[in-house]
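Researcher: Please translate sequence to structure tokens.
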Amino acid sequence: MTHGFQIAWHPRARLVLCALLFIASAAPANTDTAALNDLLGPRPQFSERDPNRVALGRLLFYDPVISGNRNISCATCHHPTLATGDGLSLGLGEGGIGLGQHRKLDPNNPPEQRIPRNAQALFNLGATSFTTFFHDGRLEADPSEPGGIRTPLGGDMVSGFESALSAQAMFPVLSPDEMAGHYSENPIAAAVRQGRLTGPDGAWALITQRATEIPAYRDALRDAVGDEREIGFADIANVIADFIAVEWRADNSPFDQALRGDTPLPAAAERGRRMFYGRANCASCHTGWLQTDQQFHSIGMPQLGPGKAARFESHSRDDGRLRVTGRAEDRYRFRTPSLRNVALTAPYGHAGAFATLEGVVRHHLDPVLSLTQFDPSQAVLPAGLEVSDWREWEDTSARAAIAQSIDIEPVDLSDDEVDDLIAFLHSLTDETWRARSAGVPESVPSGLPVDQ
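Model: Translation complete:
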């Protein structure tokens, strides 16, 4: 079965894939690690971070004080007990109560709009190769842009962000549905809704003021910034990024250990590795050491939830990369996720449609069939919602449009081969981050409750 898609291979990419196919099909077990090391390219690099800044970023990451209503922290949707996600297909930010799958609608303050996309994991974001963020890549390093970062805010983006990671770390605080709050609830939410981001009464300044009014934060930020200038919004983002970069580094999995020549993979994982880099063709998108090309592909993921629409729009569609580039061919394309710790980070997909690793693997085998036969009960949604999450999926013409856009080919694998492939994906799990992790602080300088 085909879907009218042809890959325009770069000559070097063709040679690499051919080599991988040869390795996967011909080499004896565990004798091709040197060749695969070469084909994976340079190992990910992680820059050094100041421990004092990391410690400060940790407190700010878990402190709800930087949310509009002082009720949501970064950790609410990216919690270590939930493998740096929230365990939900589509989470609840503002208007929710609780953590993870126990999070439910706040009946006294329901959300104005739902969060439209799955909360992505934070593993290895400190690697210098990670330069593109969010499911649609709307924030990415770009030397041609002021500050070297292209963002949806354009000229309204304040300066001082040290990396694309630090810039993306603070975008949720500007989202009414994630952390800012409803229009009339607090000054930060009002500033966001009125488009006041910069200036002394803008949202950036109001959030900075929130933090610097607390002596512990003010003194620590002053130490981080120095005495030569005023503390700004970007300084808060920079130390949070330092924390994320250090806390969730995960590059010592069994896969890494096998390629170092330490411990061979178990037989099933080794067979799955050969399948991944061979006939299953997973490596055509999940490339390199972190198993992502950071590019955008349409793989026919079912659409659920409110979709990615502006407040004046009424559809439930998520056009993916199209909303960034404006190019019709980018509709329904989403960024290739890294597969590090993928076995820990369900649900999967831009809208979290698949609750299990096997489910999302089997979707890749025949995306059109999977899209047609998708079982909505797989989704993991918060309790108490009285909305239809399935308007787009139930629309046959909408499903057909997604199916038409698919740019990967079906693969025929036996059940045993699927099991082997899943065993390999488990070999990408690095649990050592748990031992290295500083963990959730018992308290934060604001004195507000911490999600435990």
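Researcher: Any highlights?
Model: Residues 12 and 28 are 25 Å apart (CA to CA).
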